[in-house]
Amino acid sequence: DVQLQASGGGLVQAGESLRLSCAASGFTFDDYAIGWFRQAPGKEREGVSCISKYDSITDYIDSVKGRFTISSDDAKNTVYLQMNSLKPEDTGVYFCAAAWPPLIGYASKWHEEQSYDYWGQGTQVTVSS
């Protein structure tokens, strides 16, 4: 079965860092596009970052560029989201999602929830001021 498990969230102060992990089973990341989403209290879920070996791309929402870095470890079949210089507005539940097969035009649609086929349950990130 295809499974995604997000982990690594926690409670931190503004300016600190966290590294989130998305561990996959039942497939390899080389064949999928992976997206990170977050949902803040009272707000809609939004795309944060993505990585696709298939399309050879990484991308980020503007508000996290320069602070967040997405990467993959093929041996561990895991995707990471390194989050530095965290701000209170980064608070939310973070989800990882996988898309297979990748959509034509995925590079321009990675931030849309409907682009993905599988979802993890999420991990809570709370940033205090």
What does this structure look like?
This protein has one helix at 106-109; strands at 3-7, 11-13, 18-25, 33-39, 46-52, 57-60, 68-73, 78-83, 92-99, 118-119, 123-128. With 129 residues, the chain is mainly beta. The strands form two sheets. Strands 2, 4, 5, 6, 9, 10 and 11 form a seven-stranded mixed β-sheet that branches. Helices cover 3% and strands 48% of the residues. The protein is built from one helix and eleven strands; from the N terminus they run βββββββββαββ. The mean pLDDT is 93. 33% of the residues are buried. The chain starts with a strand and ends with a strand.
How many separate helices? 1
Outline, from the CA principal axes?
globular
Order of helices and strands: EEEEEEEEEHEE
Distance between the termini: 40 Å
**Poorly predicted spans:** none
Derived structural class: mainly beta
Q: Helicity level, as a percent range? A: under 10%
Radius of gyration: 14 Å
Beta-strand percentage? Answer: over 45%
Please give the number of β-strands. 11
Arithmetic mean of pLDDT: 93
